[in-house]
Amino acid sequence: MTYEEVMEKLEQFGSDQTKKTLARHGAKEPFFGVKVGDLKKHFVKEVKKDQQLVYDLYASGNSDAMYLAGLTVKPKEMTKERLNEWVQGAYWYMISEYTVAQVAAESLFALELAREWMQSGEEMIAAAGWSTYSNYLSIAPDDEVDREEVHKLLNRVEKNIHTEQNRVRYVMNYFVICVGAYYKPLSERAKEIAARIGSVHVDVGDTACKVPLATAYIQKIEERKAVGKKRKTCIC
């Protein structure tokens, strides 16, 4: 498929209802309003064959095309420079916290970029950094994880979460959940931090979204006896 053919097909799969929903969450023009399920079902197989097409789709600035790029890119082929270009273009949370963060987490520069982005004063970049680290924990073997660094990051969350920027609060809470769920050496510590931070307020706009309570979320993972169980991929 050519770039033009993909964009035309995306427009065909777009709907006003999905567009309204995504707009309430933060998407802005240009975008068509394509369901993620339709992206996976009707686009991924063909688009994945052409990585230059993937890069062109992300560069379009069209939110649907950008999300599709994240589903079809080969993370190990991504350069640090291109990942930095992607995070700069991630103007709302679905792209920064999911598309960019998940691809970065499976790239060769996961921790390097996570650390760099987490220090940013720009909300979407900082959020991408925390989400990248969280996603990395979900797929990386425990012996490849820096326990001391994760411990320090948990302390940082406890100290700063309630005064951080809006979406950064959300992904910091997610980080605690991911440590509790995927990194067994510090799962108990994550539970302690989760109890201390309690409920986290995030402005989710005119949506029905809720911020998960980290204590309850980790408890559910424990009840399923799934603590420490890694994912094969974090791209979804």
Task: Describe the protein in words.
Helix content is 64%, strand content 0%. The chain has 236 residues and is mainly alpha-helical. The protein is globular and about 50 Å long. The mean pLDDT is 97.
Q: Which radius of gyration do the C-alpha atoms yield?
A: 18 Å
Mean pLDDT, to the nearest integer, reads 97
Shape summary? globular
Structural class: mainly alpha
Order of helices and strands: HHHHHHHHHHHHHH
Q: Characterize the biggest β-sheet.
A: none
Helix content: 55-70%
Give the distance, in angstroms, between the N- and C-terminal Cα atoms.
22 Å
SSE order and pairing:
Elements: H1 3-13, H2 16-25, H3 36-42, H4 44-47, H5 51-59, H6 63-72, H7 80-89, H8 93-105, H9 110-118, H10 123-139, H11 147-160, H12 166-182, H13 187-197, H14 214-223
Provide tags for this entry.
236 residues; mainly alpha; 14 helices; 64% helix; globular
Briefly say what this structure is:
The chain is an all-alpha fold and 236 residues long. Helix content is 64%, strand content 0%.
